[in-house]
Every structure is written in structure tokens, then in C-alpha cells.
């Protein structure tokens, strides 16, 4: 198996009232292609920050992130955007659909961004997969939270990412809907071999992944590998 | 990594998708621009129509190919020259025109008119329009005249009636409706009467000393190159002291004077547009702010910063285009109506047609402006970090360091300057205009920042909750203080300025018509008539307010240099005009109440050489100063004089004022005319008195100021209307900007009000908080705007109009309260949806 993500000596600090606030401190791990990993830890331990750095949403203060062989730290914001578009999917705790686009258009955007044409059919297929084919022309404000999360799932899958980051994907959903979303996530991992990295407070969900990385105070407390 | 294609068509698609749910917002953004564009398109359109009409009707403006003019009786050499030109002409006419009284025999009415004594078949192009139509031809061969239609109406005269000009009776052959080059106003001020030239002598009016203008009109042979001919003959024209006009030069001078008017009006329109630009900028600013989250999400999915920027640029450009088209359409409609006001100022018939050029200019301007003023907020889109998706961070890179920002500022400044330069004369004025605009902007920005700082620093913690909350809304996150103070403040400044300038203009041209001011001037009184007319005036019970002798003369030499020597001198020391001008001079022993000595010493009685006094403007234009030695040609007699003093003259007073005043004892016996100034109590007394004077002394002319004041009043009303009309564009635009800024900020405040209500605030409390917030905002903005306007207009009054600045404080105070209360009202009206509806509904909607 090949390495899809490699994190080396990763640190993140924020300037805070003259001093520096260290949020992540010397994080190291590798993740194999096709595996499922959950990151757990108490609130404020730096999970979201770590995820953001791995997905190339932010720049580390020191250390490096190599995603699918690409060193993210050496890229500028636009080059990282391109990497995200090509290789990365992202699911947010609060869905983050584009409010001015319909559900279907939300799913189409990542494909269209790649310059692909006639993407409607494949987007519809994805919506069908998450059970929302009939709601394609609805705007996010017309969908329930769970439905919105499923649309965001379809959107994350749409560019067939090599790696999918999910920040508390079920955090805002009831157990039953949450489980539906979970099921979809693992199916994707199984069918397309997408690497899955999720942040969760749900230990039951965490236990279903191959590997659990525990964070505390910005450092790895324990890595189940 | 290969470069990512921009994928333009997809960007357009996204721009369209995103706009679907924002139509109302986007409309707000363009609405503030529409009126400014409309104003400009209307004015440009009229200007364009005018240019075309002047082009088309140029020949009829002058009526001939060549018009040779002089205001002094041509000597035999000049006569010979003008006659020689006839060899190249197919047709020739001569005209002598001068002001004189005419007497209507039937009603006995008298009135000062412009006599135009004509020979030949002028005009060769266009027509003298008369009723009946044939009169324009027939009067020339008979003992007939054409009388202006306003006169005919005023004195209820009919065709066939008699009028007396000088000592001679003429029959009215027809009503004069329109003559070449005449405007509606010129015929009300000095209505024309055409008569055959060959009877002029008999009237006894064309005497030496009368102000006669001589015109020689030529219709040249068809193949003549008029302008080449004029260039060739220029030395001859100068030698004989003749002026000349051709169709081309007439066209240019007419075009120039109207382009000045349209330029001024476009500047007023531009101010409306600038105000709209502020609206555009603030609307887009807030719009973009709300789009940050969406942009962050798109960035997360791999949108490049350039693409993000372009999506919204495309959106704004298209919306700007739609707004510009709407503005241009509205402008074209206004353009059809505006000529009703202009008509009387124009020397030609205005054909109002849709001007595609003006529409094109307006649309282009609209698009440029919407892009230019959106760029500032739009460039910040490039800096939106995808991190915003996981955490609304306030650490988005500060855009003030963005070099593009300064580039945009520069672009905007450059644009405003260039546009202003097109409307203004010279770079100095232009720079003053655009730099004051920048200063105004900075001051307002500074005041907004300072008020926020002050409120924070000296926060009145002892106030009640509602007051504190309302006040603190000015500085809490997401506040609109800066943008609203800027737009409302600048709007207030513009509106105030318009009011001030209007009142300065009106004050300036309103002549004093108060009690005991003279209202009748009798001139051209010959020396031998003087005693009798004075007696007549007194016997009518009218006061002799002023009685002044006038001697006409020319300047022969300045410090030993005569006109010829001055002309041939490589460095012309004195202006040629100074020599050519016919001067009307008086002599007296003291200054009048409207004069003030500013330099030198007044001489009342001449000792040896006369020490004369010059009016300061004249001294300046003729390059004369104290001690200069002059020689005057007083109708053939050379009179030496020394410049002894310089006077300041208040020309606004109704009385005779002079550029040159001689002391007594030098020209007292020179051939002279007299002017008598009096006051008549009413129109009837005026008519009776005029009739008495004119029937006995037909050469005497009388100006009835009451009549002139009426005409002036009419002109002022029309000018005032045009100014107010243009100003109303700015004012309405200001209101729209105000409404849209407040409407936009509502989206920010709404959520909060709802949350407040959710946690139990009463509607009244929320209402009061909102009202107070907007009242604070409105009053800070209005106050600053007014202070700016006061400073700016003080400068304008002092340096540009040169009048004392006395703002109407009542207006100022009412503008302050209107703006503050209007802001409050609009703010409250817009937030009422947060007050009346159940909180849940709104929370859901904004989710
Ligand atoms: N921009 C910032 N400036 C300063 N501190 C920050 C910033 N962003 C995050 N932090 C701090 O970094 C720490 C980690 O935040 P992070 O969001 O990664 O926590 P988390 O593990 O995701 O918590 P939760 O489970 O509550 O979501 C927190 O203490 C947070 O306050
Ligand atoms: Mg988190």
C-alpha cells in the first residue's frame, strides 16, 4: 500500500496578545491509501486545525504536509486550491452548501471547476446515491440539516477524491440520520478506495475506522496504529 | 503543475446562478446609479442635438457667406475695401443697426428697440420669417418696416398701422417672427425693427456719436473658398478696423458657447453620478462581505482566487450594464422634455432626436463606473481564505496592504480627474475639484473613525440599556458606521453645496429693485436738448437722480506708442483692443457713492494735464497703471492725460458707471451727449413720460428698467429651473443611496434584533435601539457633511464668485434634521420586519 498523507513535525501557532499560542505541537503520522482514520480528542485540542492543515486550507507554522506526493507547504494558495480540487473532498460539521445554488448545482460545482462539461448526469447519479435525486432543484434553505449534509456528501464525492476529510460529519444530525451518512461514507471508502479521515466525538463511529489518533493539547496522545 | 484554464463560460454561469437569489440586492446596487446616468445622457443628448442642429443650420445663423462688421463709421478707405469685396460676391447687403425709440402712432406707446436698417436681399440663407409671409420681401421696396412680434403684442399693433422712427412715419408691413441668429431672449430684451436702409438718413438718427453697428453681408460666388479668402484678407481687415464672421467661425463660436452650458450641466450631472458611485461602492462592499462564506466554500473546492474575483466582477459588470441601459433610457426620455426649458436661449430650432452617441457614452460611463467603484470591495475577494469554512476568522489578511488597493484608488482618482477635466476649463480647476473630493472623502472617513473611537473611549456607561445598546451598535463588529457616514455625509455635502451655490447665483444676479432706486435711464440726449428734457422731467414731478455728460473718444497713444507702433512691436506692450475701443467718458469733480479709490489720487479740477481715473478692471485689461501718459482722440482733437488714480466700481448698482473719468476743466466743451437717470412710480407714469419725451425728441432713447427686470426675472426663473432640475437628480440620488445603504445594513442588523427578541426584548426596546443607532449615524454623517459643505462653499464664494459667504442657517439646520430623521426613519422602516414577525420565521430564513 502507498502513502497518501504524510505529516512531519507539524506545528501551528497563533499570535495571541503579544505571546504565541501553540495549537498544534510537533505532530507526526503517515496514512496509507484506502485506510480509514478517525481523529478524536477533547474540545479545543486542535482537531479541526489539524484537518485544515492536512487538507491544505491553511499553512503550518512549521513542519510539512505531503498529500499524494505533493508538498503542500511549497504551494501558494491558488496551487493548493488546485490540489484540493483534484484530490481532496471535504465535509463540514455545518454543511457549508452554497446558499445561492440548488442542491444539484452544489454537487456539480467541483466537477465544473475542473473544466468538465455535461456533468449534470453524474451529479444526479450522486444525488440519487444519497437519496435526494428528487430534491435537486431545491435550494439549501429548503432542505433539512440531514438532507443538506447528504448533499454536501454527494458534493464531496463528486470529484472522486483520493482522500476525504470530514469534520464531525454527523455532529449536527440525529442518530438515525447520522448512521445513514456514516454508511454512505464507508461505502465510498469501500467502493472507490477513498481514504477517509474524520474528526468525531462519537466513539462508536471512531471504533469503526482502521485507526484512531487521539489528540490532547495539540499533541498526539495515542495512535492506535 | 500546468496552468489552470480560467473557464470563462463557467464563470459566467456561476455569476448568473449566484445572482438568481440576489436580484433585489443587485437592483439596489444599480438603482443609485440610474439617475446620474440619466442626467448625463439627457444633457449629452441635448448637446449632441445642438451640435447637429448648429451644423445643419449654421448658414442660417449668419445668413451670408461673409459678414464684415465694424462699430465705427467706416472711413472712405474702409468703404472702398468693403466695396471691392463685392466683386467676388453674387449678392450683397448692408445693414446699420442701433438702439432707438419707436412710437406707435395708434396707442402712443414708445419703446426702445434695435433698429436694423437693411439694403439688398439679406439673408441669403434662411429667411426673415414674417406674417404675412410676403412682408419679408415687400417692405424693402416700400416705406415699410417689420416689427418684432413681442412688440406687436405688447402695443396691440396691427399690420398696416404706423410707427414713428426718428421724425419719420413708417407703415408696418408685417410681424417679424424670426430673423437669422436671433434667440427668444434677445428679441425680448431688444426687439428688432427692420427698415429699408435708404430711409435711414431721413430719420436723422444716424448722427455722429450714435452707437451704430455696420454690417456688410456677402453671398460669395459658389466656388469661393471663404476661409482661405478671409485668411488672405486678414491684414486688410485689421488695417481698416473691421471684424468678420464666416459660416464656419459663426458655427464655432455658437457651438462653443453652448458647449460651455452643456459642460456646466454635465458637471452637475456628474455630481449626481458620483453620489451614485458611493452608493454602488457601499452596496457592493456589503454584498461582498456577505458572500465571503460562499467564496470560502468555493475556495475549499478548488476555486482559484482569480476565478472568485472574476465571478463577481462579471456579475457586477452585467448588473452595471443593465443599470446603465436603464439610466440611458430614462435619460433619453428626459432629453425629449428638457428643450421646453432651453428653447428661448437657442438661436436655432432644436430638433430633438434620440442621440445614440449620448446613449453609448452613458452606457459606457455606467459600466466603467460600476466596475471602478466595485473594484475596491471586489479585490478583497481574492484574499478570502478557505479557512473561513471551518471558522469565521477575522484574521483575513488585511487588505490595506494590498498594492492593488492603491492602484484602484489611483484609477478612481484618475477617472474622476479626467472626467472633470472634460467638463471644466483648465487643469487647475480640475485638480481643485478632484482634490477637494478626495479631502472630503478623507475627512468623512476620519470623522467616522474618530467618532467610533470617541464613543468607545468615553462610553456613557451610566445611560440606560437601550441608549447604550443603540450607541454601542456604532462600533460593535459588523457595524456600518464608516460606510454610512461616508455615503450619507458625502451626499449631504453635495446637497448642501447645491443649495448654497444656487443661492449665491440667485443673489448675485438679483438686482436691487427696492424703493427709491432709479428705474429709468434716458440717454442720447444732445447738449441743446438737455435743459428742456431736465425741465420736462421736473415738471412731471420725477426726481433728477443723476445727470451725466458723455464724451466719446478713442485712445490714440499710450506712453508715446500709437496703435500702429504697438501692433508692429514684437513685444506688444499694450492690448490692441485698448486702442480700437470706442470709449464713453464722463467728467466730474467727485467720486459717486458706487465708487471707491483704490490707488493714486483723485483730481476733481484739472490743473494743466488732466489726471484721469480708471476703473480697475479696465486698467488691468488695457495694461495701464498710475503715471502712464495717454493721448485721446476726442472726435478729431488730441487731448493728453495722465493716469492719476484707479477706482473700484460697484457695477451692480443701477446708475451710470464709467471706465474712464476726466476731471472738470478739460473736455467740458467737447461734443457730448447726456444721460439722465430718474425714477418713475409706475408703468402708466412711465408710458406717459416716455411718450412725451419721444414725441418731442425722437433721437432720445429710454430704458425702462422695470421692463428689463421683468425679462431678467424670466431668464433667471428659467436658469433657476434648469439648475434646480439638475440638482434634483443629485438629491434624489442621495436619497436612493441613503435608502440602499440603510437597507443593506439591515441584513446585518436583522439577525441581531431577532436574537434580542428571542431572548426576551420587547418590540419597543428593539425599535428604540434601532432608531437610536440610525439617529446617531445620521446625525454624525449629516453634521460632518454640512461642515464640509460650509468650508467648501466658503472657499467657492470667496475665491470663485468673490462674494461674501452668508449661508442661510435655517436651510442648514433643516438639512441637518431632515437627513438625520430621514436616516432614522428609513432605518426603522427597514427593520420593522424584525419587529412584527415571529422570531422563528426570520431565524429560519437567515439560516
Ligand atoms: N485564529 C485563531 N486564533 C487564535 N486561536 C485559535 C484560532 N483558531 C483556533 N484557535 C485555537 O486553537 C485551538 C484548537 O482549535 P480547534 O478548532 O482545532 O479545536 P477542536 O479540537 O476542533 O475543538 P472542537 O472539538 O471544539 O471543535 C483552540 O483552543 C482555539 O481557541
Ligand atoms: Mg473542531
From TrEMBL, chain A:
It comes from the Bacteria. GO terms for cellular component: membrane protein complex. Keywords: ATP-binding, Nucleotide-binding, Translocase, Transport. One of its GO terms (molecular function) is ATP hydrolysis activity. InterPro entries: AAA+_ATPase, ABC_transporter-like_ATP-bd, ABC_transporter-like_CS, MacB-like_ATP-bd, P-loop_NTPase. It holds the Pfam family ABC_tran. Signal peptide: none annotated. Gene3D superfamilies: P-loop containing nucleotide triphosphate hydrolases. Residues 5-225 form the ABC transporter domain. PANTHER family: ABC TRANSPORTER ATP-BINDING PROTEIN MG467-RELATED (PTHR42798:SF2), LIPOPROTEIN-RELEASING SYSTEM ATP-BINDING PROTEIN LOLD (PTHR42798). Belongs to the ABC transporter superfamily. Macrolide exporter (TC 3.A.1.122) family. This is ABC transporter ATP-binding protein. It comes from Pedobacter quisquiliarum. The lineage of its organism: Bacteria, Pseudomonadati, Bacteroidota, Sphingobacteriia, Sphingobacteriales.
UniProtKB/TrEMBL annotation, chain B:
Residues 27-234 form the MacB-like periplasmic core domain. The keyword Transmembrane applies. Pfam families: FtsX (PF02687), MacB_PCD (PF12704). One of its GO terms (cellular component) is plasma membrane. It is a multi-pass membrane protein. Keywords: Cell membrane, Membrane, Transmembrane, Transmembrane helix. It is found in: Cell membrane. The chain crosses the membrane at residues 26-47, 264-288, 309-338, 358-381, 406-424, 430-455, 483-505, 721-745, 766-789, 809-829. The keyword Ribonucleoprotein does not apply. Residues 267-386, 725-839 form the ABC3 transporter permease C-terminal domain. This is Permease. It comes from Pedobacter quisquiliarum.
Amino acid at each position: 500500500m502507498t502513502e497518501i498523507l504524510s505529516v512531519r513535525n507539524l506545528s501551528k501557532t497563533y499570535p495571541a496578545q503579544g505571546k504565541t499560542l501553540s495549537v498544534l505541537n510537533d505532530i507526526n503520522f503517515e496514512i496509507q491509501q484506502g485506510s480509514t482514520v478517525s481523529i478524536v480528542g477533547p474540545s479545543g485540542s486542535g482537531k479541526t486545525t489539524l484537518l485544515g492543515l492536512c487538507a491544505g486550507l491553511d499553512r503550518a507554522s512549521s513542519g510539512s504536509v505531503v498529500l499524494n506526493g505533493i508538498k503542500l507547504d511549497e504551494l501558494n494558495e491558488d496551487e493548493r486550491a488546485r490540489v484540493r480540487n483534484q484530490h481532496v473532498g471535504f465535509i463540514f460539521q455545518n454543511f457549508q452548501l452554497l446558499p445561492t445554488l440548488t442542491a444539484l448545482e452544489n454537487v456539480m460545482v467541483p466537477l465544473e471547476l475542473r473544466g468538465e462539461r455535461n456533468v449534470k448526469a453524474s451529479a444526479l447519479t450522486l444525488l440519487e446515491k444519497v437519496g435526494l435525486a428528487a430534491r435537486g432543484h431545491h435550494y439549501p434553505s429548503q432542505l433539512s440539516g440531514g438532507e443538506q449534509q447528504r448533499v454536501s456528501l454527494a458534493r464531496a464525492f463528486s470529484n472522486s477524491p483520493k482522500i476525504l476529510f470530514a469534520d464531525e460529519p454527523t455532529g449536527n444530525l440525529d442518530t438515525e440520520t447520522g448512521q445513514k451518512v456514516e454508511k454512505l461514507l464507508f461505502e465510498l471508502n469501500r467502493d472507490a478506495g477513498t481514504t477517509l479521515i474524520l474528526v468525531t466525538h462519537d466513539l462508536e463511529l471512531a471504533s469503526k475506522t482502521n485507526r484512531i489518533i487521539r489528540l490532547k493539547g495539540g499533541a498526539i496522545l495515542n495512535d492506535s496504529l | 503543475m500546468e496552468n489552470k484554464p480560467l473557464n470563462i463560460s463557467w464563470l459566467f454561469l456561476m455569476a448568473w446562478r449566484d445572482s438568481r437569489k440576489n436580484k433585489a440586492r443587485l437592483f439596489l446596487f444599480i438603482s443609485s446609479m440610474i439617475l446620474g446616468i440619466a442626467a448625463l445622457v439627457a444633457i449629452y443628448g441635448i448637446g449632441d442635438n445642438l451640435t447637429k442642429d448648429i451644423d445643419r443650420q449654421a448658414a442660417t445663423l449668419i445668413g451670408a457667406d461673409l459678414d464684415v462688421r465694424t462699430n465705427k463709421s467706416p472711413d472712405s478707405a474702409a468703404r472702398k475695401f468693403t466695396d471691392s469685396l463685392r466683386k467676388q460676391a453674387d449678392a450683397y447687403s448692408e445693414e446699420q443697426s442701433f438702439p432707438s425709440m419707436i412710437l406707435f402712432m395708434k396707442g402712443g406707446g414708445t419703446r426702445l428697440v434695435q433698429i436694423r436698417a437693411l439694403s439688398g436681399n439679406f439673408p441669403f440663407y434662411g429667411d426673415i420669417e414674417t406674417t404675412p409671409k410676403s412682408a419679408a420681401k415687400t417692405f424693402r421696396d416700400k416705406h415699410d418696416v417689420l416689427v418684432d412680434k413681442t412688440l406687436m403684442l405688447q402695443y396691440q399693433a396691427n399690420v398696416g398701422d404706423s410707427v414713428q422712427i426718428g421724425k419719420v412715419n413708417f407703415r408696418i408691413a408685417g410681424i417679424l417672427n424670426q430673423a437669422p441668429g436671433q434667440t427668444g431672449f434677445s428679441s425680448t430684451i431688444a426687439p428688432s425693427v427692420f427698415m429699408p436702409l435708404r430711409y435711414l438718413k431721413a430719420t436723422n438718427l444716424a448722427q455722429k456719436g450714435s452707437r451704430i453697428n455696420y454690417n456688410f453681408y456677402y453671398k460669395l460666388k459658389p466656388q469661393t473658398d471663404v476661409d482661405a479668402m478671409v485668411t488672405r484678407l486678414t491684414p486688410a481687415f485689421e488695417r481698416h478696423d473691421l471684424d468678420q464672421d464666416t459660416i464656419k467661425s459663426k458655427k464655432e463660436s455658437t457651438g462653443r458657447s453652448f458647449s460651455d452650458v452643456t459642460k456646466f450641466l454635465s458637471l452637475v450631472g456628474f455630481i449626481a453620478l458620483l453620489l451614485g458611485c458611493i452608493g454602488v461602492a457601499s452596496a457592493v462592499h456589503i454584498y461582498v462581505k456577505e458572500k465571503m462564506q460562499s467564496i470560502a466554500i468555493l475556495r475549499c473546492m478548488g476555486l482559484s482566487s482569480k476565478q472568485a474575483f472574476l465571478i463577481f466582477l462579471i456579475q457586477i459588470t452585467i448588473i452595471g450594464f443593465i443599470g446603465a441601459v436603464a439610466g440611458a433610457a430614462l435619460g433619453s426620455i428626459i432629453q425629449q422634455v428638457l428643450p421646453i426649458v432651453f428653447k428661448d436661449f437657442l438661436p436655432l430650432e432644436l430638433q430633438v432626436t434620440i442621440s445614440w452617441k449620448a446613449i453609448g457614452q452613458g452606457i459606457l460611463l455606467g459600466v466603467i463606473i460600476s466596475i471602478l467603484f466595485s473594484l475596491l470591495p471586489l479585490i478583497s475577494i481574492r484574499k478570502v481564505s478557505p479557512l473561513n469554512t471551518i471558522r469565521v476568522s477575522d484574521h483575513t489578511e488585511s487588505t490595506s496592504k494590498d498594492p492593488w488597493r492603491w492602484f484602484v484608488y489611483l484609477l478612481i482618482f484618475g477617472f474622476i480627474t479626467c472626467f472633470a477635466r472634460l467638463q471644466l476649463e483648465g487643469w487647475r480647476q480640475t485638480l481643485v475639484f478632484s482634490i477637494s473630493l478626495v479631502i472630503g472623502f478623507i475627512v468623512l472617513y476620519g470623522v467616522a473613525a474618530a467618532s467610533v473611537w470617541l464613543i468607545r473611549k468615553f462610553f456613557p456607561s451610566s445611560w440606560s440599556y437601550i441608549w447604550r445598546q443603540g450607541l454601542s451598535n456604532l462600533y460593535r463588529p459588523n457595524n456600518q458606521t464608516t460606510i454610512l457616514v461616508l455615503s450619507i455625509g458625502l451626499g449631504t455635502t453635495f446637497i448642501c453645496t447645491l443649495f448654497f451655490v444656487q443661492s449665491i447665483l440667485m443673489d448675485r444676479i438679483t438686482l436691487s429693485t427696492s424703493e427709491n432706486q432709479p428705474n429709468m435711464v434716458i440717454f442720447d440726449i444732445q447738449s441743446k436738448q438737455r435743459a428742456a428734457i431736465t425741465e420736462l422731467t421736473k415738471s412731471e414731478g420725477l426726481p433728477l437722480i443723476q445727470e451725466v455728460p458723455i464724451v466719446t473718444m478713442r485712445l490714440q497713444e499710450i506712453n508715446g506708442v500709437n496703435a500702429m507702433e504697438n501692433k508692429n512691436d514684437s513685444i506688444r506692450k499694450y492690448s490692441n483692443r485698448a486702442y480700437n475701443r470706442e470709449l464713453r467718458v464722463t467728467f466730474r469733480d467727485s467720486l459717486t457713492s458706487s465708487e471707491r479709490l483704490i490707488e493714486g489720487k483723485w483730481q476733481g479740477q484739472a490743473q494743466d494735464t488732466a489726471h484721469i481715473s480708471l476703473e480697475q478692471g479696465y486698467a488691468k485689461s488695457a495694461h495701464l497703471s498710475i503715471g502712464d501718459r495717454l493721448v485721446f482722440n476726442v472726435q478729431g482733437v488730441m487731448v493728453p492725460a495722465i493716469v492719476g488714480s484707479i477706482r473700484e466700481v460697484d457695477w451692480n448698482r443701477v446708475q451710470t458707471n464709467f471706465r474712464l473719468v476726466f476731471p472738470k476743466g478739460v473736455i467740458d466743451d467737447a461734443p457730448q451727449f447726456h444721460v439722465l437717470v430718474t425714477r418713475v412710480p409706475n408703468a402708466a407714469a412711465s408710458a406717459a413720460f416716455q411718450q412725451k419725451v419721444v414725441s418731442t425728441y425722437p433721437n432720445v432713447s429710454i430704458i425702462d428698467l422695470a421692463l428689463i427686470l421683468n425679462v431678467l426675472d424670466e431668464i433667471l426663473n428659467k436658469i433657476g429651473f434648469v439648475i434646480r432640475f439638475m440638482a434634483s437628480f443629485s438629491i434624489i440620488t442621495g436619497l436612493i443611496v441613503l435608502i440602499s445603504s440603510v437597507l443593506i445594513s439591515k441584513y446585518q442588523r436583522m439577525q441581531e434584533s431577532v436574537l434580542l427578541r428571542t431572548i426576551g426584548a420587547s418590540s419597543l426596546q428593539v425599535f428604540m435601539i434601532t432608531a437610536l443607532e440610525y439617529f446617531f449615524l445620521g446625525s454624525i454623517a449629516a453634521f460632518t457633511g454640512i461642515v464640509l459643505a460650509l468650508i467648501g462653499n466658503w472657499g467657492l464664494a470667496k475665491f470663485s464668485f468673490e462674494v461674501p459667504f452668508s449661508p442661510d442657517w435655517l436651510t442648514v439646520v433643516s438639512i441637518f434634521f431632515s437627513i438625520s430623521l430621514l436616516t432614522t426613519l428609513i432605518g426603522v422602516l427597514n427593520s420593522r420586519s424584525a419587529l412584527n414577525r415571529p422570531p422563528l420565521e426570520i431565524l429560519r430564513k437567515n439560516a
